[in-house]
Fold this sequence. Notes:
Strand order of the largest sheet: 2-1-3
Amino acid sequence: MIYTIIGSMVIIISLAYIYYKPSAKVTKNIFNAEYYRGLNYLLNNEEDKAFKIFTALMDVDSSTIETHLALGGLYRKRGEFDKAILIHQNLLSRPTLEAELKNQALYELSKDFHSAGLYDRSEKIFRNLSEIKSYRQSCLEHLLKIYEVTKDWEKAIELVKSMDTITDNEKTLSLLAQYYCEISSIYNKDNQIEKAIAISKKALKTNKNCIRANYQLAKYYSKNDIGISVQYYHSIIHQNKDFSKYIINKIIHTAKKIQNNNIILKTLMSISEIKEMPFIPDIYFFILYEKDKETAMKYINTFDRTDLVNNFVITHTLASTEDQTGLNGVIHDLVNSYKNIFSSNFYFICNNCGYKSNELNWKCPSCNTWETIVPKSAVDIIEEGKHSE
């Protein structure tokens, strides 16, 4: 109930502003009483009666069109799309409506259709209005949203390519790469692996920094060429070190598919030498069990043990590999709990809005931005907490 009252008050304030603003040429004496009667209906939640009055007022003075545009927009924001559509269609039915006001009403109507999920109608209007310079940018943005929601990636690519900024806009190239990756994913689901690989490579050619394209190619090649798969995984770590622990986990999982682990061991040794890489328990465990303890300890000794977080992680990693028969039950359980934290538990957090998920999304469901979600382990979260103090 409180939200309905607040919504009505917002509408009243907006209408009053439009009605009384200096630029409005309204013949107030002619319809003052009717105008206030309409506001009274709004206040009492009798919106249908209010709408009839405001519709009648349109015929008195053309300046009241602005009132209806505002009213329609407010209905749309409240989720009452049928009323918003009716208001804007009623405006467009006026034969004497000026061209600019007609375009404005069409623009509002197309947003009504979009919000109501009537994407085909919305698309048609946005396309026509995009030919008008003052509406072009906004309409193209709305069209992209429609194609993303409807997953019409071919149209999205065609539209992005038509934009003037395609030759030098990094953001645009990044968006194009994401659309190619979406198409690649569809081919993969249809078991058309060769086409999926070709499109992912096209995405990577479009945007060399596209993590998703490398990730897709690593997964595709893991089925028949582990060496190439690992190379693509390796590339991701060079692109963004935030993915390092997650990708190491994927590389080691890939190692389980093959008899010869030399490729994996060589890759992990190479990754361990990358500057500013965090200590990764999975690398230590793999080197320890697939090579020897001496080499594993050399890996540990490359890290600064005076760093509290490093020392914490390394100490418990070492403890988890010791013979625990002599430890009491409490310490044994403590070590096992740390093993679970450090092994493969990842959270996926959006760097843009903070959205948190248990699975990797390439487009944030909360803020709708592409490739802003990164994997974080419990240790990463501890580390970030330390730096924020």
